[in-house]
Amino acid sequence: MFGYRSEQKLCLGTKGFAAPEQYQGRLTAASDVYGFGKTMWALMGEGKWRQFLSSPSWCYLLFQCCRKDEKRRIPDMETLERKLKALSEKGLRVSGKQLFLVAGLFTLLLFTVSGIFLAGKETKKKQTLPLSQALTQVTQNYYDTSFWEKDQKEQKEVCEKTERELQKLLKAYPKKEEQNRILMLLALNAELAEEDAHARQYYQQLLLFDPDCTEGYGEYGRYLWRKGEKEKSLECFFHYESAESQGERQQEKTPGLLKWEGEMKEYQKERAQ
C-alpha cells in the first residue's frame, strides 16, 4: 500500500509502516496486511494497552499482521477480512468514530488487493502497473497516521490531491471493472472531504455507465443510508437486488453490504406496519 517504482527497483514506504520485504524491492499481498496492522497500532494511540487487555484476541490479530517474516504473517486482506469478521462476532467493541476509520481504511485496502494481483509477483520494467499497485501509490496518504492528526482544512487538501490522482487513473485504466473500482474510491474520498455533491456525482457516474453493477448500487445505497435518506437508499436496494438476480457476483459480499441488506429488510418491515 506504499509507492512502488519497479523501474528503479525501489520500493518506497513510510518508515515504521512499510513491510520488511518492501525494502528488498518486493511488494506482495502480505505487505498490505503489515501496513494495516502498523496503522491500526498507531491509530489506537496511548490507549492501545487498555484495548489489548480488554480484547487479547484483537492484540493477537495485530501481532499476526505485523510479523516481520511474511510467510508467518496473515497472507492477504481477504483472509484478514474473515478474521476481523469472526473477531467482531465474538464481541470486539470500538467507538463509532474508530469503527468508521477502521471500516473506511480496511475497505480501501481490500479494494486495492482483492483479486487484482498475485502475491509475490514483481512488476517488470516498463510494464504498466496493475491497478492494485497504481492505487496503493494514490491512496497511501490515508495510511500515514499524520493524515488523521491534521486539521479539517489540511485533510481536505489531501483529499483534493487524491481526487486529482484518481481522476488520472480513470483515463489510464479503461476496463469496466477498473473504472468501477476507481469511481467507488473517488466517491469515498469525496465523502471523507465532506463533498456531498461530488460523492453523489461519482456514484451516479458509475451507475450510468454500468447500470448492472451490484456493488455500485450497494455502496451508493449505504452512502444514502448514512446520510439519513432512507427512501433513496431503499430505491437503491431494489436496483441492487435486481442487478444481483440477473448477474453473478465475482466476490463475496463485504460485512458492510451484509449489514446494509439487513437494515433495508428491517426498514421495509417498518414501512409495512
TrEMBL record:
InterPro entries: Kinase-like_dom_sf, TPR-like_helical_dom_sf. Residues 152-195 form a coiled coil. GO terms for molecular function: protein serine/threonine kinase activity. Signal peptide: none annotated. The chain crosses the membrane at residues 99-120. Keywords: Coiled coil, Kinase, Membrane, Serine/threonine-protein kinase, Transferase, Transmembrane, Transmembrane helix. This is Serine/threonine protein kinase.
